[in-house]
Amino acid sequence: MTFDQFLQYVFSGVTTGSIYALTALGFTLIYNATDVINFAQGEFVMLGGLTAVSLHDAGAPLVLAALGAVAIVAVVGVVFQLLAIRPLHSAGILAQIIVTVGASLALRTAAMIIWGRESLPLPPFTGDTPIKVSEATILPQTLWVLGLTLVIVVALQVFYRRTLTGKAVRACSVNAGAARLMGISYSKVVLLSFGMSAAISAAGGVMITPVSFMGYSYGAILGLKGFAAAILGGLGNPAGAVFGGLTLGILETLTIGALPMSGASGYKDAVAFLILLIVLFVKPQGLFGGRSVEKV
Amino acid sequence: MALLRVESVSKHFGGLEALKDVSFSLHEGQVKALIGPNGAGKTTLFNLISGIDRPTSGHVFFRDKDLGRLSPHVASRLGVGRTFQHSKVFDDMSVLDNVKVGRYARGHAGIFSAFLTMPRHRREETAVADASLRTLRRVGLGDRAHESAGNLPVGDRHLLEIARSLASEPTILLLDEPAAGLNNEETAQLAEIVRRVRDDGVTILLVEHDMGFVMDISDEVVVLDYGKKIAEGPPLMIRNDPEVIKAYLGEDL
Amino acid sequence: MPILAFLRRHVWYIAFSIVILSAPLFTGNIYYLSILAFMATRLMIVLGLNLLMGQAGQISLGHAAFAGIGAYGSAIMTTRWSMDPWLAMLLSAVLAAAVAGLIGVPTLKLKGHYLAMATLGFGEIVYILLVQLKWLTNGTDGIGGIPSLTIGSIDFGNAQMFHWLVWGVALLMLRISLNLVDSRVGRSLRGLHRAEIAAMSLGVNTSFRKVQVLMVSAVFASIAGSFYVHYVHYVSPVSYTIIFSVILVTTVVIGGLGNVWGAVWGSALMILLPEYLKRYNQDYTQLVFGVMLILTMIFLPGGLVSFRTLVAKVRERFRGSRAGPVTGPEPRGGS
Lengths: 296, 253, 335
Ligand SMILES: Nc1ncnc2c1ncn2[C@@H]1O[C@H](COP(=O)(O)OP(=O)(O)OP(=O)(O)O)[C@@H](O)[C@H]1O
Ligand SMILES: [Mg+2]
Fold this sequence. Notes:
The structure holds three protein chains of three kinds. Chain A is mainly alpha-helical. In chain A, 73% of the residues lie in helices and 2% in strands. Chain A has one domain: Orthogonal Bundle (ABC transporter involved in vitamin B12 uptake, BtuC), CATH 1.10.3470. Chain A has eleven helices and two strands; from the N terminus they run ααααββααααααα. In chain B, strand 7, helix 7 (184-199) and strand 8 form a beta-alpha-beta unit. In chain B, helix 3 (95-102) crosses helix 5, helix 3 (95-102) packs parallel to helix 6 and helix 5 (119-138) packs across helix 6 (154-166). Chain B is globular and about 60 Å long. Chain B starts with a strand and ends in a 6-residue tail after the last helix. Magnesium ion is lined by residues 42-43, 85 of chain B.
């Protein structure tokens, strides 16, 4: 592979990688606040994209459609917590897995009923004239994806470190009991975490739709890859999640690019899951530690 | 020869030295107590002896086998039985079924003979049921055999763990705070059961904070403090050892 | 009277067998018989998954893969290599067991969410292979022309004959699953589910037992997949997606974890419900499944088999007095 081809793969890897990163970030927010792994996380990405498509089709300007979609999915996240997660109390991990898997199935099917089986497009945020870098080209949407991902990550850091609410959220993730004693409302923090998690993942969905369209069934794969990214970076570690997402995106496209056979792109998803399995088997605490996998 | 030899065992968790160069040994038929303040490393040592964790350095020999290198189920088959400080009773299984799991190591029926319930399997099942019931009676839980284990009061949970372990016919039994949460009467009952088990030829190593209980039933005591062995000897000597008293400052010996 | 004791011990099993095996005597309707046949193959998979999840407490979100191995194994070996269907079924099952063993050793070391995700990833990889290995699997077009099963002159392409065959096997699997629950191995699985370290300290080689039960469930699923394709004569990858794995878990959970009979009720419900919903709008089926999963976990965590307890609880609440204890422990898996 030539350097330009390499560059091209990296560009495309970084684009999808950013979406994995945002999905992974979504996992992380909920996991840190509640120890729940939300198997419906990918559906938030899908809902974000499709909702934006509908709002835009209904005549909303792109910016409003995007923001509206993010807000609507955030509400879905909150409602999901209230209706499905909260009633479980502390029913154990199996129950959590089953409930979020059930939600995933329900959301996905609801999306199929609402939007149909076709993949739907959204126009790029600012035109689609490719920009030349060396011999490789980069789409303006790629820059949007990268830029907005960066903005979201930075905003999240500021929120966590600078605002009072953010500090409360962090306190809860470190020690829910102690946080409660300090008068922080744990249940509000959990709701907020679900809302923000859904919003961030939805933003990923909105941004990627102009690049690769969005269909009702895309959520499962995106969710799995987001989780793979979160694991890769060390579950519970937000910076790790972003790193994991970008790494996964780049590895995925490079592996496919390096494979000599035709039709290799069909194996793209398999590469991601292979990476997931290898990381789980070899170093389940991820590349950057994160929280311990098993408490004996 | 000693039945169990702990030879300069150390265990580190990251930077924390939970055990530092601990050595002692246990003779067949002995009741030995392992005492020490909270966090002294007692449970950690139990985990090393029962194969759940590996020593950072040093060895634990059971007869001539190095337990530090073996898996828990192998240690169990060699004759090391244990109970847990934080109850690990199989809740929502019956009391009897709990003990039957304890009988596992003495059985042979594999998955295929279970599938087909061959006559041999059925004979083994009957034998397991009989032996388990007998073991339950040994600790006085005979009439609760068919209750759900999750419904047992704290004291009986300890006894059930003991029975479960006894069902595997261990050579040595490790008891991690068996008297925790028991009232005086129950503690006396427990001491009686432990003595009977000892009389049946089982060697016992026990961790316990209830000093009355410890002094009452043990032949020898090992004292740990911050992972170091600070004393070893008969109960009377330990009770008057200045270093032990210092370690337990403020606590009632 | 050993005979009487035997009958009493197995009364439910015998009654169920008689009812289900006599069904073809009352109806020759192909539609009804094929629904029952699908129920039998579903039951086979769910029984294995029920043992894995309910007894050993290990979740698998990739179980469709094992059914897929059986289905594709039989399809490929019989159509391309003209192999005897029974031999193909056997070899597929061996392959499924081998894959389960290989994947099980590292995977079953994981717990909780990690195990769920790893199995999900495994299932997805197998699905991708089924789609992508076109030279072998014919990709999304699938493989047709899969022959019926025969023994001598008996042709199991006949719906009634197939009913007896497939239910005979399903009932056999039900029997041996029930037997397993009440055995040394079954108890050790329940023990390691509750407290793995305690089970280990009692001599249970827990890693071995977990892998073993995964292999057994893979064989059940593979055999089910084989029967299925010999009945419908066609296979394609869409039958073996993550969604199918999720539906399988749903079936186990809704039937009742930890109770083998739950597999029977779960399979019946999950086969009949879509048939019923189809009359209105097929699209809603999975939506209903998803919502049912959530509601089951919240309101009926013991599954259908624990319905009595729920009714008792509700009744007690309405009476407003503690008139009597809630119905005792659930019917055990055994008997
Ligand atoms: N898996 C582990 N990882 C890290 N630290 C550990 C681990 N297990 C034990 N420790 C630490 O090792 C030290 C010894 O713990 P251990 O449980 O052996 O104490 P103990 O003597 O049994 O105390 P107690 O009387 O409270 O039961 C403690 O400081 C504990 O926090
Ligand atoms: Mg301890």
